[in-house]
Amino acid sequence: MSDPFAPLAGPGARETAGRPAGAVCLRPVPADAPPAPERHPTLGEAAGRWVYRDAAGELVGFALRFDQPDGGKEFRPLSCWRMPDGRMAWRWTAWPAPRPLYGHDRLAAAPAAPVLVAEGEKAADAAGRLLPAVVVITSPNGSKSAAKADWAPLAGRRVIVWPDADEAGAAYGTAVVALADGAGAASTAILSPPAGAAVGWDAADAEAEGWDAARAADFIASAAVPVARPDGARAGKPPVAAGKKSSGRTDSDPATARRRRPAQRDSLMGLCEGVGLWHDEEGEGFATIPVAQHVENWRLDSKFFRRWLAVRAYEADGLAPGGQALEDAVRVLGARAYSEGTERAPCLRVGASEGRSYIDLCDSAWRAVEIDAEGWRIVSAPPVAFIRSGQMRPLPAPEAGYLVEELRGFVNVERDDDFVLLLAWLVAALRSRGPYPILTFAGEQGTGKSTLSRLVRELVDPNAAPIRAAPRDDRDLIVAAVNSHVIALDNLSAVPAWLADGLCRLATGGGFASRTLHTDRDESVLQAVRPIILNGIPSLTDRADLASRAVTVRLKPIAETARRGEAEMLANWQTAAPRILGALFDAISCGMRRFDSIQLDRLPRMADFARFASACEPAFGCEDGTFLSAYNANQSDTIETTFEADPVAVAVRDLIRNDCPSGWHGSATDLLSALNMKASESVKRLKLWPATAASLGNRIDRIAPVLRAQGFIVERRHSGVRTISIVPLASEAM
Q1: Which conformational region is residue 528 in: left (phi greater than 0), alpha (psi within -120 to 50 degrees), or beta?
Q2: Which domains occur in the chain, in start order?
Q3: What is the DSSP letter of 29?
Q4: pLDDT tens, position by position, 318-352
Q5: In this model, does residue 85 exceed pLDDT 90?
């Protein structure tokens, strides 16, 4: 290693190595000092150069790194001196102790910021880039020279040390903590390298590995929670060992305890001043948070609220809160939301208040559309408590003055009636109150079912994943319903019984119950009503209960000459979607205006849906009665398809028409026996064919609506003996 005290070439070359007698180090460097050299006389060009400044930002010197041909590296301090003859000269020598801290100027400029001590200037710069809210400093001349630095500026500061991952680093960290405590630091803590860190790993390595500010903040939070020094501990005096006497106050002294830094949990809760706490009817806690010029509503146990609170803590202290402290704070806030907050109804995408409907635009300003009988408008502070999930996306910004007919250019329906039914489903799905019909797109391959499902959803409830595969079980279906207003399932080949039951409950309103995680007795219940979109090639409404809630829109194949490129179609859609959405809002307003005047002679299964859609007919551009005629015809077609797909229903019809023209009366056992006598072996091997009398009884209950649609009266009697009665209407009339 070359001599670190070698004089500069030139005027100082005749001087001996080291500091000449009578020379004085100049701190700060005078403005009229000669320029610092760019090269070392023997080591050459520097690979790294770090500027040291004092508290006022004045230059005090440099530290430089020189890379060697053998892969080694040399470090040299560069300081300015006034020589005995009065001239000023730069020398490759360190400042006399106490030496300046690298980053002293930043330390002085941010007196309230926490302080991070890194090992070496390169690591300090990397840590500063990763943690911009923290003041990062280091001491000069390597890990063994920590005691020669001036640590007095750390008095009253919160200090964390990030040493290198090696023995020298551990020694440096221990030394800095002791020196900072001796200087009067308010608190000190030291970081341990993460598991698997290479020898010598430091902040520069972390940055090279792709760490970001969040990960660096989490790492800083892993340091031991800083503890304030007792006021009785004098600067420069080490702590008293256990068992030895001390004249200073102890941790058990109430006066000292009062002056201790508050628990991190309490600090986090203090950051929530101005946050509105409330709960829903199930007791789940929510927070209304002021952000910029609007407010946002989040579940207290959501990652969004935790992230907001962590960011607030980082902005306030420069440190990420520990996981346990965050968990404790959220738990206490949840208890306060339940015991002290008001009860409100959280609304996902749609809501209502005082006769007005509200639709969350899901934009960054948390604006909503307000609709009443007079029209619609965008409002910045809706009175309902909208909540959001991470998958929700903004609606198109609605534009007024257009017609719903513009949607026709994107929909290849077989009949005009189907377009009316689609419009009816859209206005229903944008309302805050169900029940909602289940929209089913049917058609052969190449009819655009998936594309149309995406577009329709974008008009109601845009989502990061607009259409999805079928859920695996009830729990997946519940999760989807909790996080979005619309459930859209794509490319179904069949609808199994459990899924059909779940979709029916979601469409008309029903509860899903499951055991609360990590408990044996508590039960979590979801009460939800959601619009649903299904698409597939085969019939998806084979079950009667699903068919009675469905609106089936049949699509025709798209001719090769009529196909458009996806980019062209999406560009046209981006222009049209805001207009179509505004027209749908006009239709909803029309329906609200006319709803009370609409009286239907015969109410279908989805009565509220049918009545509101009928009220919207003028906005659809059709005459009164058009919707109800289309809806009744659609229901008849769907039920007929459902009947033909059910082997038991077909077998019962054939049995009565061919063998029992006056009707069937008897037990389920007798009916099963009669059906088995008539059914072919291939039919009896079907999974849908009942194996027992009990399963047949259940099937009769399910297919009763489609049998009635075929002209049969179905009754179950329980007077002594359980019997089934299935009678043709013509026979009943006789």
Answers
A1: beta
A2: 1-96 (no CATH), 111-238 (3.40.1360), 264-343 (no CATH), 404-559+568-637 (3.40.50.300), 646-733 (1.10.10)
A3: P
A4: 777 778 888 889 999 999 999 999 999 999 999 99
A5: no
